[in-house]
Design brief:
557 residues, alpha+beta, seven-stranded antiparallel beta sheet, six-stranded antiparallel beta sheet, 18% strand, disordered C terminus
């Protein structure tokens, strides 16, 4: 009887172990000496390698009641003593690259002992969260936002991709926004974005890395078990060891920081706030089960890094895709976009336009920059805008700016503004699924967050409420102008056209809709507005029209 009971007990123990996925003989391996490098989409960093480490350079930025915390600074002029950059990544411009150079040897040794890989986790120890990250503008309405960021610590997440190119954390030849080996081998698309040549399409995560979850754990077992990362175990081991990971933050903005009753969105533009981490680890679990000898990942591209560098010095691979125009190219652009008198406009009216353009010395009319310095500062201002950054009634200006000058921008700058507006327009949702930005009909964004935990929220200044219902005229005009900015956003255009043509609510008199891939400019102007706009256009500065010299009061003003 006792023997029978012992047999049952042993069987139960075996069943429990099987359910847990780990037996008493399972062994573990921790790799805790990674190489880390940062790549940044800020213009001045496109070709600057950044070696990163847990003791990398940070500086406390204190803005009183609005928040105080360390920020990572990667720009070389900030790291004056040659310090490494801190381990940080955000959802807009800054990505962190991580690899474990000794992984192949250590893992092959364990497998050679009759062990099979059952689990692989990338562990990201939380160190802090930035309030005021390098390179990004502060919210324009901080008095509206108050201490909302301080009182409600975020619970943001990490996303991970596997890379397809070899790299080494090095201040001279390390990876950059343009290159996997600086100056020698280039990503197919800036920021390692191409899923055929730069990184694998499979995404790992999201894994929370926050104050309440101090160790984010990303299951990356597929790196060594899935044929998506290599046909043989040796190939997959090489991918893990030589190419490693790319890390980004998941939350491109966060509507938990929106004021539920206020239409203004000053708090949610948090995509640039980076997650600071301590030294990443790779933790592997092995089960005692014989498996094929996987070798040590020898013989593939990139493992002999010195030989690869030597080869690229003889014949560089690819070309940079984040590039500034030359002085001669900029001269051509400046001539193309120079302010000129329209053919229909009389000389007297053109003179008046020039007077108005320069009436305010602090806010003079925009002139296309004629030198590389001014052009670069302009691009930096654009790249400094986090996604869904609300700048009040000037927000649609960023769309108009992109429509008019997008062809004159480097690809990363235009790409940034397209993503900026994609986050606003929420084109994957019907407007009927969205609620009024001020929550004036019962349901609101904060209630949606409480139900779902979805940081995206379910409202948009440019899709919900003000584009279909009466509000103050400035809100109606502002919402519709932003809504119709790009024809490729079919949902936004449909909603915007309805507003313009029905006159409910009051509509912006002119919206440019642009398809970037064809270069088509097409005005959306309702018929009812055409004659009126012509009347405004022909009314002189002194209230007279050129045809009769009489003074008129235009009823549409």
């Amino acid at each position: 009887m006792i023997a029978w009971q012992s047999f049952i007990a042993c069987g139960a123990l075996f069943f429990i172990c099987a359910l847990c996925g780990q037996s008493a003989a399972d062994t573990s391996l921790t790799l805790d000496q990674p190489e880390c490098a940062g790549i940044s989409g800020f213009r001045r960093m496109w070709d600057t390698p950044v070696v990163c480490s847990a003791d990398g350079f940070t500086k406390v930025v204190d803005k009183g009641p609005f928040g105080k915390a360390p920020s990572a600074f990667w720009a070389p002029e900030q790291r004056k003593n040659g310090e490494n950059g801190a381990l940080v990544f955000d959802a807009i411009h800054r990505s962190l690259l991580v690899r474990f150079p000794n992984a192949a040897e250590r893992i092959a040794e364990q497998v050679g002992k009759g062990q099979s890989i059952s689990k692989v986790e990338l562990v990201l120890p939380f160190k802090g969260c930035e309030f005021w990250p390098e390179g990004y503008v502060d919210p324009s309405g901080m008095s509206f936002m108050g201490d909302r960021w301080v009182k409600n610590p975020p619970n943001w997440h990490a996303l991970v991709w596997g890379l397809r190119k070899p790299w080494k954390a090095d201040p001279e030849i390390g990876p950059t926004f343009n290159a996997f080996i600086n100056g020698l081998g280039y990503w197919k698309k800036f920021g390692a974005q191409d899923e055929d040549e730069d990184r694998f399409a499979m995404r790992f995560g999201p894994a929370e890395v926050s104050q309440r979850n101090s160790e984010g754990r990303v299951d990356v077992t597929a790196f060594l078990t899935s044929e998506d990362f290599g046909k043989t175990p040796a190939e997959r081991l090489r991918v893990l060891t030589t190419y490693g990971f790319l890390l980004r933050k998941w939350e491109t903005y966060d509507t938990r920081y929106k004021d539920g009753w206020n239409g203004y969105e000053y708090g949610p533009a948090t995509g640039g706030r980076g997650l600071l981490i301590d030294t990443p680890r790779l933790e592997l679990t092995f089960t005692p089960r014989p498996s094929p000898n996987i070798g040590r990942g020898d013989g593939g591209e990139g493992l002999n890094f010195a030989a690869r560098v030597h080869q690229l010095r003889q014949k560089p691979q690819g070309k940079p895709t984040a590039v500034m125009p030359t002085a001669e190219e900029l001269k051509t652009l400046a001539d193309k976009f120079a302010s000129r008198k329209p053919t229909w406009m009389p000389e007297w009216q053109w003179q008046r336009v020039q007077e108005l353009a320069n009436a305010d010395s602090k806010h003079s009319a925009f002139q296309f920059p004629a030198d590389l310095g001014g052009y670069g500062r302009w691009l930096d201002e654009i790249l400094a805008r986090p996604y869904r950054n609300f700048i009040g009634h000037l927000t649609p200006f960023t769309a108009i700016e992109a429509l008019k000058y997008g062809d004159a921008w480097p690809a990363p700058v235009l790409n940034h503004m397209k993503k900026y507006w994609e986050e606003w327009l929420m084109t994957d949702r019907r407007y009927t699924d969205l609620v009024h930005p001020q929550g004036i009909y019962g349901d609101d964004n904060q209630k949606y967050l409480a139900r779902t935990g979805d940081w995206r929220g379910n409202t948009s200044f440019y899709r919900a409420g003000y584009t279909r219902e009466m509000s103050t005229m400035n809100f109606n005009h502002l919402a519709v102008t932003g809504l119709c900015w790009e024809e490729s956003h079919r949902v936004g255009v449909r909603d915007g056209r309805r507003t313009l043509r029905t006159g409910k609510p009051a509509a912006a008199p002119l919206v440019l809709v642009r398809r970037f891939d064809t270069g088509i400019h097409r005005p959306l102007l309702p018929r009812a507005h055409t004659a009126r706009s012509e009347g405004i256009r022909q009314l002189g500065a002194d209230g007279t029209r050129p045809d009769d010299g009489k003074k008129h009061v235009d009823q549409d003003r």
